[in-house]
Amino acid sequence: MCLAVPGQVLEIDRQGEPTMGKVSFGGVKKMICLDWLPEVKVGDYVIVHVGFALSIVDEKEALETIAMFDEMARLAPPDEDVPARPSTGTAS
Amino acid sequence: MKYVDEYRDHALASQYAEQIRRITTQPWHIMEICGGQTHTIVKSGLDQLLPESMTLIHGPGCPVCVTPLETIDRAVSIAGRSDVIFASFGDMLRVPGSTKDLLTVKSEGGDIRIVYSPLDAVAIAQQNPEKRVVFFAVGFETTAPPNAMAVQMARKSGLKNFSILCSHVLVPPAMEFLLSSRENKVQGFLAAGHVCAVTGYEAYDPIASKYRVPIVVTGFEPVDVLQGISMVVRQLEGGRIDVENQYARVVRREGNLPARKLLAETFDVADRPWRGIGIIPNSGFVLKESLAAYDAEKVFDVLHISAQESPLCIAGSVLQGLKKPHDCPAFAKECVPEHPLGAPMVSSEGACAAYYHFRR
Ligand code: SF4
Question: Integer distance in angstroms from the first to the last C-alpha of chain A?
Answer without folding.
Answer: 27
